[in-house]
Design goal:
The complex is a heterodimer of chains A (about 240) and B (about 400). With about 240 residues, chain A is α/β, with parallel strands linked by helices. Chain A is built from seven helices and ten strands. By secondary structure, chain B is an alpha+beta fold. The longest helix of chain B is centred in the C-terminal third of the chain and has 44 residues. The chains are: A alpha/beta (about 240), B alpha+beta (about 400). Bound molecules: adenosine-5'-triphosphate (ATP) and magnesium ion.
Chain lengths: ~240, ~400
């Protein structure tokens, strides 16, 4: 992975804390995390349950704010941003895929994928056009009119991925994207994510499974909110 | 503008997705607006017809009409004024220059007139020759009734200028025939324009010879109740004439010493005053109804919107994760509340008008219902205000949700 060092840094975390105070108990879900993520990296975040993986992803995705420390995304300090600016970052720079899909249950696949484009002020006809292309890319061209509950788990996750990518975000964040899927469907989803990486997408993914972490070219292990190891590897499929 | 359109679109979708619940949510508003519009339509229908009756009455005119005392009304006995009463006044009271009976026929469907494909409602009155003098009006074209018309009970009429427009009659309608109920009636005169009072046109009326009117209306009403309008020769003797009429009518109606009058003798001013007092009371009461029911309706909307925000917490979280700003969410929920309220208003106006028309048609002697535009606009204005006022708290609550908390919500 000699080439990666030449790529620009997309995410820079410096001494990030995320502290929960419950009564007189103080819990550091993230306990001084510093990381650099470069463009077109394919990162797996692993660690035992409760180690802070989701907390870290939420901070990456600007869904949550760090209690302390600095987060620089594409050269801009996220800590200084207003609520509206954060919404804009979530809309344009980040695509988030969740374990539980998080599709809008009353909206069709197509409408789900169209939704992020609403906040960019793109007119309806154009939104439809872009979203249906995005769905075709993930192989769901014939399922656009289906509601989430009319789709299989794998198909739902494809819709979610397509929705995350429809606005060409800088980073794709995926928190256990295969956590709710059987092994065959998981492999299909991983194949899709691998392809995205091959096309140049920067990807950070949380996973429990060693098999899935193998797909990535960098593995970050968390333990009690701290980075316990950070290794580069040659991805294998 | 674009965000507004998007919010409108998603609000509509959400309302449609919860069709029945949306209906229940709006129910408070629907009931409020329905009752208000029903009341207003009836009151306005009445006031339109009553105002027409007052128009032009000079300050030296007196109107005598039946009045049922409360006690008597409880027993279901309604007072009447009859031809014999008028004759007694003419015979026994001095100082009167002109007298005319007035028989109102604008009762529900019987107020209906039509010409070719056009139909309309109007105030139809049977009157004597002195009516013009008492009311200070003149024919602008054609002629007025003659004794002969009266004696032969001819189906001829003089019309107010509004009728020409309402029925799309030719510019010069003299000699045309149109239908009053099922009777063809020939137009022999057009009365000059009287203008408006309190925003109501005073020119939507049809005058028939008194005997003719009795012939048309008399078939369906056995005991007619008429009014008597008269001019007092000398303004200074007004009170004297009034008390003289009272005495004559009390004897005529065989009232004993303790019994209250079963009629009223009023000057034009008194008429307007007593009428306005009634209208004001009804307006105040209906304003009260609006206030209370819109308040209740608004609270209903707020309640459901709060439930809806809680129920859709996860959805809000997803939208925020996809890049919705606080304003996007706020606008969406606010517009949803506004729409619920306005839809309630729309249904309410339609139902209210229907209810008013139904009541007016069913009660004998009631003029047709009429909903003025201001009442509709006011209703919508209130509904919009209620939607915004009671929608803002749930919408603000939705917009302030933390994306992570919202996404975690189960
Ligand atoms: N809202 C919260 N309030 C208090 N504590 C929290 C909150 N969210 C997370 N935590 C705590 O922070 C720690 C890290 O949680 P996190 O969800 O990041 O774990 P994770 O590594 O994603 O676990 P898993 O693999 O089970 O998903 C946990 O100990 C959890 O209890
Ligand atoms: Mg997790």
């Amino acid at each position: 992975m000699a080439t990666t060092s030449a790529e620009p840094i997309v995410i820079q975390l410096r001494d990030i804390y995320r502290t929960y105070i419950m009564g007189d108990q103080v819990l550091n879900a993230l306990d001084g995390v510093s990381l650099d993520i470069k463009q077109n990296e394919y990162v797996a975040v692993v660690g035992s349950s409760g180690s802070g993986k989701s907390t870290l992803m939420n901070i990456f995705g600007c869904l949550d704010r760090a209690s302390k420390g600095s987060y620089i995304l594409n050269g801009t300090d996220v800590g200084d941003m207003s609520e509206n600016e954060l919404a804009k970052v979530r809309n344009r720079q980040i695509g988030f895929v969740f374990q539980s899909f998080n599709l809008l249950s009353r909206a069709t696949a197509l409408k789900n994928v169209m939704q992020p484009l609403v906040y960019r002020g793109i007119p309806l006809a154009e939104r439809k056009e872009i979203a249906s292309q995005a769905l075709e890319k993930v192989g769901l061209g014939d399922r656009m009119g289906h509601l989430p509950n009319e789709l299989s788990g794998g198909q739902r996750q494809r819709v979610a991925i397509s929705r995350a990518l429809v606005g060409n975000p800088d980073i794709l964040l995926a928190d256990e994207p295969t956590g709710n899927l059987d092994s065959k469907t998981s492999r299909e989803i991983m194949r899709l994510i691998d392809e995205l990486h091959d096309q140049g997408q920067t990807i950070i993914m949380v996973t429990h499974e060693a098999d899935i972490a193998k797909h990535c070219n960098r593995v970050i292990s968390l333990e009690d909110g701290k980075v316990s190891s950070d290794t580069k590897q040659v991805k294998s499929r | 503008m674009n965000t507004f359109l998007e919010s409108l679109r998603s609000a509509l979708e959400s309302i449609r997705a919860h069709g029945f619940r949306s209906l229940l949510t709006s129910l408070g508003i629907i009931i409020g607006v329905t009752s208000v519009i029903a009341v207003v339509s009836i009151v306005q229908g009445m006031s339109e017809s009553i105002n027409a009756q007052f128009a032009g009455l000079g300050s030296n005119s007196l109107t005598v009409r039946s009045h049922t005392p409360f006690k008597q009304a409880m027993q279901g006995k309604y007072s009447k004024l009859q031809d014999s009463d008028m004759r007694a006044i003419v015979r026994q009271v001095d100082g009167i220059s002109h007298v005319t009976p007035v028989l109102y026929a604008n009762t529900g469907s019987r107020g209906g007139i039509s010409y070719r494909a056009q139909s309309a409602t109007s105030n139809i009155m049977g009157i004597g020759p002195s009516y013009l003098k008492v009311n200070g009006i003149y024919p602008q074209s054609g002629r007025f009734f003659t004794r002969d018309d009266e004696n032969r009970r001819r189906l001829v009429c003089a019309i107010g200028v509004d009728i020409i427009e309402n029925l799309e009659l030719p510019k010069d309608p003299i000699g045309e025939f149109f239908l009053i109920g099922n009777n063809w009636c020939k137009i022999i005169g057009v009365i000059e324009k009287r203008g408006e009072i309190l925003g109501f046109s005073q020119d939507n009326y049809v005058l028939l010879p008194y005997a003719t009117a009795r012939r048309i209306i008399g078939n369906t009403r056995r005991d007619l109740d008429i009014q008597v309008q008269l001019l007092v020769e000398d303004m200074n003797r007004m009170e004297e004439v009034k008390s003289r009429i009272r005495r004559v009518l009390r004897i005529q109606h065989k009232l004993k010493a303790g019994q209250p009058d079963d009629f009223k003798v009023q000057t034009a001013e008194q008429l307007t005053e007593s009428f306005n007092a009634v209208i004001n009371t009804v307006t105040a009461v209906s304003a009260g109804i609006v206030g209370i029911s819109l308040l209740v309706g608004g609270i209903g909307i707020m309640n459901i919107m709060l439930v809806s925000v809680t129920e859709r917490t996860r959805e809000i979280g997803i939208l925020k994760a996809l890049g919705a700003t606080r304003n996007n969410i706020l606008l969406q929920f606010l517009i949803e509340a506004l729409l619920l309220s306005l839809i309630g208003g729309l249904v309410g106006v339609a139902l209210g008008y229907g209810a008013g028309a139904l009541v007016a048609a069913m009660l004998p002697g009631f003029p047709p219902a009429f909903v003025p535009l201001w009442a509709v606009l006011l209703s919508f204005g209130f509904c919009a205000a209620v939607g915004v006022i009671f929608g803002i708290i749930p919408a603000a609550k939705a917009s302030q949700l933390d994306p992570i908390d919202a996404l975690r919500y189960e």
